Amino acid sequence: MDALNLLVTQLVILAVLAVFLELLIPAGDLSRYVRMVLGLLIIVAVLQAATGFWHRELSGTFSDLSLQQTAPATSSILDEGRQRWDDNHARALDEFRTGLARQIMALTRLNPDVEVLNVDVVLDVEGESGEIGRLQRITLYVPPDPPGIGIGVSGRGVEDGRDRLRQTVAEFYNVDEALVKYETQQ
Fold first, then answer.
1. Contact between residue 104 and residue 117 where contact means Cβ atoms under 8 Å apart
2. 160: number of Cβ within 10 Å
3. 3-state secondary structure at position 149
4. pLDDT, tens digit, for every residue of 101-136?
5. CB 3.0–4.6 Å: which of 18, 98, 105, 169 could bond 38 by disulfide?
6. 89 near 128, Cβ under 8 Å?
């Protein structure tokens, strides 16, 4: 409605200007040019009002349509990106856990008193400890104690060797010794 009021106001002003200029300018070739220029101004005023109307009406309609069409596509792309990030994050933590287990297994081979068959590493994957990927538990799988006195390969006791190995692993990875556990495995 405002656009229509503006158009009528501009047309009235241009009509008054045309009448006033026709009275001031003498008859002849110059009055034809003045009428032509004023006619062009009236056409421009009408076109401006019409394009302003179309621009406001259609841009609102088209922007609503474009938002409705792109919003689901954008959310599905974001969901897919989050899923890929979660998958890559889980795979990275698994690779990290596997690499740590191999390192710990290599470290345990340096101690001749204790035979370690396998290593299991548990990491914080939910961030409960404040850091994702923090060591929660290291389990060293050892064979059952041999019957007899419990003497290791170097002549020391098996328990003494296990305690030293637990201490070495805990110090190497800067974790509490209580996180390093032993379990027997056949």
1. no
2. 15
3. coil
4. 999 999 998 888 888 999 999 988 777 767 777 888
5. 18
6. no
Helix/strand/coil percent split, the chain, to 5: 65, 10, 25
Report whether 114 contacts 142 (CB < 8 A).
yes
- Do residues 170 and 140 make contact, with C-beta atoms less than 8 angstroms apart? no
Residues 105 and 116 sit within 8 Å (Cβ to Cβ): yes
* Cα 179 from Cα 138, distance rounded (Å): 6
Q: Among 169, 165, 171, which residue's Cα sits nearest to residue 115?
A: 165
pLDDT, average across residues 87-97? 90
- Give CA–CA dist 91/86, Å, rounded: 9
- Distance, CA of 123 to CA of 106 (rounded, Å): 19
* 11 half-sphere exposure, CB direction, 13 A CA radius: 11
For the chain, domain boundaries: 2-84, 109-184
Cα–Cα distances in angstroms (integers) from residue 149 to residues 145, 146, 157, 171, in the given order: 10, 8, 8, 29
| pLDDT band at 149; cut points 50, 70, 90 | very low
Rg (CA), the chain: 43
C-alpha 160/C-alpha 169 separation (Å) is 14
Quote the Cα angle for 143-134-113, to 5°: 25
Residue whose C-alpha is closest to residue 93's, from 130, 121, 129, 128:
121
